[in-house]
User: What shape does this take?
Amino acid sequence: MSRSDDRALHPQATIRSQLMLPRNHRAAKWADVPDEQWYDWKWQLKNRINSVAELEEVLVLTESERKGASAEGIFRLDITPYFASLMDREDPTCPVRRQVIPTEEELQPFTSMMEDSLAEDKHSPVPGLVHRYPDRVLMLVTTQCASYCRYCTRSRIVGDPTETFNPAEYEQQLNYLRNTPQVRDVLLSGGDPLTLAPKVLGRLLAELRKIPHIEIIRIGTRVPVFMPMRVTQELCDTLAEHHPLWMNIHVNHPKEITPEVADACDRLTRAGVPLGNQSVLLRGVNDHAVIMQKLVRELVKIRVRPYYIYQCDLVHGAGHLRTTVSKGLEIMESLRGHTSGYSVPTYVVDAPGGGGKIPVAPNYVLSHSPEKLILRNFEGYIAAYSEPTDYTGPDMAVPEDWVRKEPGQSGIYGLMEGERISIEPKEFSESRHRPGSVQHRLNSREDKWAAHGIGAQTDHAGHMDAGVSDTAPDGMVEAPQPVSGD
Ligand code: SF4
Assistant: This one.
């Protein structure tokens, strides 16, 4: 018996609830809606369902779902008729249902949960603009979505119309970008930028395009999945005016890939928008190797590159949807090598506190000597790769203006490049300060702890600079060590 045969299945679990659905699939509630209305995104938005009574017209709710959906103060509940029609009426393990229907468990706090687990608001120089990485920003342009995911990282503001961004705040965001030449990449998100009025979105894109140092614009959206009819040819034409423009959609389960979603993605790719997908690893939705394998294959078939699998964030309401990281690694083990590289996303943990996305992967390097790298593949085949013995590094000249100079580019790479010998937490020196210690003949010369030549920078002609001025963001690390005075 295989391990999967051993799994305890939910008593109501059916295979039916996992299957992909045909075109124009509708719950009985909307069977008679004319196609012109059904395929009109404004009709879809206007007719979203959000009350227990409306949910009960589409689903046989469990007691837990009824309690969750009727609880006071829950994260916003709204589901487009299109997406609601993908839910299985009887089976509460339906992966679409679990993403958008609240349950009683959602109300349970858990130890590590936070309101803003990625510390986005802390890294916002102006409202809605998160500047966490050196060369790129996240620009929150709305708090509205077509439907609402129960595990939403930004549930602190998403869904709340009073928190949304106004024209004065857009102007603040744009001004910050105009005055910050280090930003070369802007990711529009929210909420969902594709829920904005087409004119507002078009204006924002046009203003961003006027800023010469912004090289690329990206959009993160779930609209093509919640409401594919919104991806009209008119929208695609607007997007195409602002290239280079990239887009990440958000599909968690193969069932979300309907013919309508495939058509929407086709229109986007024909408009020259490269598409990627971000999934969140969710308990009871896609925490199964077979489901993830099917998902990545189906995505590539519609020309969407699986980009990230996110570990679920430590956010209020999402505790019951979290899996272990070891489950994520197990799934990655089932993807790499088992399917083409284009279909293998990067599995990331978005570091609590604002550390950014950290990739986690199975370990493929078993050992390393100066001459040999010992590797294993997905099958467990172990091989020795012989390193070149005469390699001394690159010897070409690199144009000076290709080198990014803004702070925060150094990091671990800076250690390898010899810019510094260590990265220290802010408290490192403080914690080693001993009460009663005095400056004396053995500890008074700082240059004793500067390695010869480390901390010097060579320019691209190979000359050495005495000292490096690079500092990491937020003063979180010590400045690089000075060059020895010897
Ligand atoms: S679409 Fe994105 S922003 Fe909107 S609720 Fe879902 S996860 Fe949150």
